[in-house]
């Protein structure tokens, strides 16, 4: 059992490390892009998407072959991903304001209730399946999957805070989740900008150039984000918080009910004990 847990954690750590490298790699190749030799994403995006989907598939297989609850949890995950894909399709039909998307409600609450590993799969697979349905496949997709996966994975960190303030199953729990969702409304947009920002050629105050220091890079990126994305992401943050305030309580109740029913372990029956032979009674 311990070895299975180690293998599972290794898969998710590997996926996150590759994602971290993918987000930082443009800063190593942007000098080529600005000279016209590369474009944002370039030929690396299909490899990143293939690798990430492969790691998600390995994680699903590993979870499904775990305890009896593993397969049923994966089945529930499939239903939740389908709901999120339908929500994103509805979003394309009736677009919301700015960067608002209803998808992150289930991603956050699934990670909060079922843990970091299921939360990562919920986020990554929601973006993958919904992109296939809505035609949103492009060099940005693997970065969206990583960012959404990290949203679901980090939702687990809210649980100890809720326990610390003794707000579980109370209004304070919903308030903390709404704050968490609002913060990720900004972080998600800010993180996704990184995959293409080093390739953007524009005003020197908002563009990255090879050789500038970390402090200068952060200053220029802050200016770029403020001018291009802050207003867009503000709608995402406010929308996330409103959805969490309105629907977190009933959704949490349903997810916890499923989690309780799925949290069981099969225990093999004890081995029969040998009984002493019955002595014959003298006549």
Explain the overall architecture:
It is a single chain. The longest helix has 33 residues, at 230-262. The protein has 283 residues and is mostly helical. 71% of the residues lie in helices and 0% in strands. It has one domain (8-28, 44-262). Helix 1 packs across helix 7 (141-154) and helix 6 (116-134) packs antiparallel against helix 7 (141-154). The protein is globular. The N and C termini lie far apart (56 Å).
Count of distinct structural domains:
1
Overall geometry: globular
Q: Major sheet: size, sense and barrel closure?
A: none
Query: How far apart, in Å, are the first and last alpha carbons?
Result: 56 Å
- Rg measurement, Å: 23 Å
* Mean of pLDDT: 85
Helix content: over 70%
Number of helices: 11
Which structural category do the helix and sheet elements fall into?
mainly alpha
Oligomer: single chain
The low-confidence runs, each spanning 5 or more residues with pLDDT under 50, are none
Number of strands: 0
Query: How much strand?
Result: under 5%
Order of helices and strands: HHHHHHHHHHH
